[in-house]
Amino acid sequence: MEGNRMGHKKEAEVKYSYEDCQATADWLLSQTAVRPLVGIVCGSGLGGLADALKDQVAFNYRDIPNFPQSTVHGHAGRLVFGTLKGRPCVCMQGRFHLYEGYPIQKITMPMRIFKLLGVETVILTNAAGGLNQDYKVGDIMIIKDHLNMPGFAGNNPLAGPNEERFGVRFPCMSDAYDRELQQLALDVGSELGFSDFLREGVYCVLGGPSFETIAECRMLHKLGADAVGMSTVHEVIVARHCGMRVFALSLITNKAVMDYDSEEKANHEEVLQTGKQRAEQLERLVSTIITRLEHNNNFA
Ligand SMILES: O=P(O)(O)O[C@@H]1C[C@H](O)[C@@H](CO)O1
């Protein structure tokens, strides 16, 4: 296997330099004729999105030189290339999280690989707990902004020497989530009859893996978060740093517990179960958005 020939560096030796990312991207480009313009990241239990791709060429993460491995149930660990109504895409069936013990630069490295593959628009999905009291389990939230809690504590994927070939030292984040794509999603959602369960809101990332306490949920809600999760934000920061457009969705898989009288307990099985129930609509929403990107000439 080519991946083995290049060799997988031991975890401690893996570097994330421009050259390392370029070597991984070059290897992938040598293995497939697909030249993706859209990169998709699937959240917990939402890997079925990749199934919408035609003419698939798929790689297990373990066979891709310098690529991290998925360790979480509900994250298959495959990079799938293919087309969606003619639009070339690459899809991460499984992402990496801080709580897996990886350095933050490693969990976000695939965004730089996307960039070097030629991706222009990144679409991310995640499973999240609903903090907004109007939200119901099964709602799909278009992310309009984020709260980066690990970032407040200095854990930002761009910390360390800046690689100018990817982007500037101090990237702006007030425009992190593309507003045209948010509007497009609302329009597509309305056409598909999804408006009843489509929301717009603020996503807050925590390190995990423990779910939040009641006091934490109350605090995050007061701070302006509508949903809480353990991913996405780090990927968004790295994707924006290197100039890709970003669109992101949270599937509200459970209601965050905000009340001491509640008997509810957050758990991963419920997260995966809700993912299954909404998978089809989520896939239709994302795939229709991608096909409209072409019509709207959003790649210009
Ligand atoms: O990858 P995502 O953010 O969808 O995964 C969420 C957060 C945890 O990894 C897991 C908790 O159930 O789902």
Based on CA atoms alone, the radius of gyration comes out at: 18 Å
CATH C-level label: Alpha Beta
Largest sheet: 5 strands, mixed, barrel
* Small molecules in complex: the ligand O=P(O)(O)O[C@@H]1C[C@H](O)[C@@H](CO)O1
Mean pLDDT: 92
Number of E-type strands: 9
CATH superfamily, please?
Nucleoside phosphorylase domain
Our measurement of the CA-to-CA distance between the termini, rounded to an integer number of angstroms, reads: 38 Å
| Helical stretch tally | 8
- Share of residues in strands: 15-25%
What would the principal axes of the Cα set say about the shape?
globular
> What structural category do the secondary elements indicate?
alpha/beta
Organism: Cyprinus carpio carpio
Family: Belongs to the PNP/MTAP phosphorylase family.
Protein name: Purine nucleoside phosphorylase
Pfam family, one: PNP_UDP_1
Describe the structure.
With 300 residues, this protein is an alpha/beta fold. 32% of the residues lie in helices and 22% in strands. α2 packs across α3, α3 (104-117) packs across α7 (233-241) and α5 (179-191) crosses α8. Strands 5-8-7-6-9 form a five-stranded mixed β-barrel, surrounded by four helices. Mean pLDDT is 92; it is low at 1-10 and 295-300. The radius of gyration is 18 Å and the shape is globular. It contains eight helices and nine strands. It has one domain (12-253, 264-296): 3-Layer(aba) Sandwich (Rossmann fold), CATH 3.40.50. It binds ligand LQZ7MJT6. The site of the ligand O=P(O)(O)O[C@@H]1C[C@H](O)[C@@H](CO)O1 has 13 residues, from β5 and α8. Its EC number is 2.4.2.1. Belongs to the PNP/MTAP phosphorylase family. One of its GO terms (molecular function) is purine-nucleoside phosphorylase activity. Pathway: Purine metabolism; purine nucleoside salvage. Residues 38-290 form the Nucleoside phosphorylase domain.
